[in-house]
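dude i think i finally got it to work??
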Amino acid sequence: ACEIEPNARRQLIDALRRDTQARVVDLDGWTALPAFVPPNERRGLVLIDPPYEEKIESERALRMLAQGLRRFASGVFMLWYPIKAAQIADQVCAHAAALGIGEPLKVELRVREAFKSGGLAGSGLIIINPPWTLEKKLHETLPKLTQILAQGDGARFTLESQTG
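look at this
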């Protein structure tokens, strides 16, 4: 895991300390992909989790996703995006579909309706090369999770294959 923000890095270290295969490095994620992908094992999961604080970050994340897939075509890639009023989710999903990358899985969990002024309403993932059992497990889990995390009438989930 790559994290440059000190508090988040400490939390990751605490969460992963018992896993002998995991490590946390003080490295910007934008530079980490070429350094760590593909892994020696030729199996792995790459989670791209940009802060989306600048307008260009969704485009940068999609470029990183495309670059990672060129280097590690068999890897599982997950691109996280926020669900806000600004429609970052729509932009990320449209651009990911335009990459023509296999059969990505789109997973979204909204805990409430988005505020017109912004604010996080939920989270989404574009998953490339998902494990074959993942979609079934998500179909079983997401309804319960949505009910537990709901903060109003707008709570819902989306689970769909993004095949062309």
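The longest helix spans residues 134-149.
im so relieved honestly
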